[in-house]
User: What shape does this take?
Amino acid sequence: MHIHRKRPWDLPEHAATPEHVFLNRRNFLVSGAAALTAPSILSPALAQEADPSTGLYPAKQNGRYQLDGRDITPEAVNANYNNFYEFGSSKRIASAAQALKIRPWTIRIDGMVDKEQTIGIDDLLKKVELEERLYRHRCVEAWSMTVPWSGFPLKALVAIANPAASAKYIRFETFMDPKMAPGQRQTWYPWPYTEGVTMAEAANELAFLVTGAYGKPLAKSFGAPIRLALPWKYGFKHIKSISRVTFTDQRPKTFWEQLQSAEYGFWANVNPQVAHPRWSQADEEVLGTNGKRIPTVIFNGYGEYVADLYKGMEKERLWA
Assistant: This one.
């Protein structure tokens, strides 16, 4: 007899159209509407401790990046529906994420660089120019949202690091603190969370380090104080709460690859024609729209910016 043992990281079959979103949509919309008139109702999700970077926001919007007719997803929706496995495996991690201590916060820059360094987040913010960009976000689970992120291009951090010409990849790593983040006590996960991009991807104008959203410093549930945004890739590539950036000539083995490489690859570019092994990627549910589904577009609609990055790579598994 064949006995199938469910692995801790396996997603349910209905993950592409989250059943709990559908079943709880009425309460979900009521909460969002309430937030418009009484923000304190959602204070556990949106509250922020004193942040010395508050005066830097709102940042000036860069009009080059638009949403092609989509509306910005209400903050009350986005901030309360996130994957942040350090604080739990459900999407409702906003309250638990308030345990995240974002000051002091340092980022270690090491590997194949001119000089390794550790820099505080507030010192880093003094070295870059912040801007706001309207980005679409597509999760591998087939839901999507749109966010007014604030931050700076990833290539600005590359310039600060001054990597060797022989560096081919950037490996990102989040914090490791099981006392603060209960999800990190789950030993079957390969903590800390890691991700990676190529140097060419890092140099692309869309690659963005996010430090704020909705005109203020980044909420903890979004991955404060600094996270990655790669809008042409599935959301699991957008690592949160970055604490280390390593330049290397070896392709990083990322968090989800280590868990299930057959389902979550290194590249993870959005493609509606390539299904996840357990669900279709042809369309997506747009959060905050009462269950509206729209067709997914290759590279999440950003093909004009990034398609050239992958020419001649037909033998690579470019899609998760």
Summary: The radius of gyration is 19 Å. The first strand starts at residue 106 and ends at 111. The CA atoms of residues 145 and 244 lie 27 Å apart.
